[in-house]
Amino acid sequence: MPISSAFTDQVIWITGASSGIGAALARALAAAGAQLVLSARREPELQALAATVPGGPERHLVLPLDLTATGTFPAAVETVLARFGHLDRLINNGGLGQRGDAADTPLEVDRRIMEVNYFGQVGLTKAVLPHLTTRGAGHIVVVSSVVGYVATPHRSAYAASKHALHGFYNALRAELHPTGVRVSIVCPGYVRTEISLHALDSSGGRHARMDKNQARAMSADTFAARLLPQLAAHKEEILIGGREIYAVYLQRFLPRLVSRVLRRSPKR
Ligand SMILES: NC(=O)c1ccc[n+]([C@@H]2O[C@H](COP(=O)([O-])OP(=O)(O)OC[C@H]3O[C@@H](n4cnc5c(N)ncnc54)[C@H](OP(=O)(O)O)[C@@H]3O)[C@@H](O)[C@H]2O)c1
């Protein structure tokens, strides 16, 4: 099926749509004919995005959402269904990076990262599941990371949150198979976004620096263009990035080599 017809008039909910990968996915999916629900905390950024993507603000719904406020999710799902009548795909993309050694990072910071990156995604997924399973169709997408396979230093809570997503969504995929609802896990390598600026440091403040690896990586729009055909095909696991994605295979087949290389990782 050509990509354009795979998404035409589909209702697609994207979290973390106010910047980076989420905003780029919104541009690409709107251009492919989708009707979008755009969620994140920063409403002005979401409104500006809705105003500029194909279809404009009348076609898409801006729905501010804090991924840590799981109690608000049922009402958010009601709002989406009241507006569009159904949901075709949920893209759990919102996330928070980390820069800081485990020994210096209080547990409260680990919890904040887990709340956004793990419980936020899982909570919203559980809130939409009754609708998707009753309908007997739908696609749940979760954005993990290469770090969901290879735990790099200075990102212990982030790595834990992304590894946890694989456990949850792999189990969910098997459970949902008879219902017709599909599950994809997306693992980006480096993508040029604001993730390192927004990442939490060990004090719980913002890292606020653009990392070199992010600065020289592919753009979020290139990433989105590469992702769309794989989402159209409901691929179960999707790895997109530069050479760093080979680390996933090295981790699987040569784990001791990866362990030795990671010991020498510079602090970023
Ligand atoms: N860029 C990379 O190299 C890379 C690599 C691997 C994986 N990823 C993953 O890709 C996803 C998108 O990240 P990005 O690179 O596009 O970074 P980004 O530009 O910082 O975008 C992160 C998004 O998450 C949202 N978010 C953060 N905390 C939230 C909260 N409490 N509630 C609701 N939304 C929240 C932000 O919106 P608000 O601040 O407006 O709420 C923003 O829209 C993340 O899951 C990240 O882990 C990125």
Give the total of beta strands. 9
Query: Which percent range describes the beta-strand content?
Result: 5-15%
| CATH homologous superfamily assignment | NAD(P)-binding Rossmann-like Domain
Helical region count? 12
Task: Describe the strand arrangement of the main beta sheet, using strand numbers.
Answer: 3-2-1-4-5-6-9
How do you describe this structure in short?
It holds the Pfam family adh_short. The protein is of the alpha/beta class.
Question: Features of this protein?
Answer:
268 residues; alpha/beta; Rossmann fold; 7-stranded parallel sheet; two-stranded parallel ribbon; 12 helices; 9 strands; 14% strand; globular; binds NADP nicotinamide-adenine-dinucleotide phosphate
Structure overview:
It contains twelve helices and nine strands. It has a single domain (3-263), classed as Rossmann fold, CATH 3.40.50.720. By secondary structure, the chain is α/β, with parallel strands linked by helices. It has a seven-stranded parallel β-sheet, with helices on both faces. The termini are far apart. α2 links the parallel β1 and β2 (35-39). The site of NADP nicotinamide-adenine-dinucleotide phosphate has 30 residues, from α2 and α8.
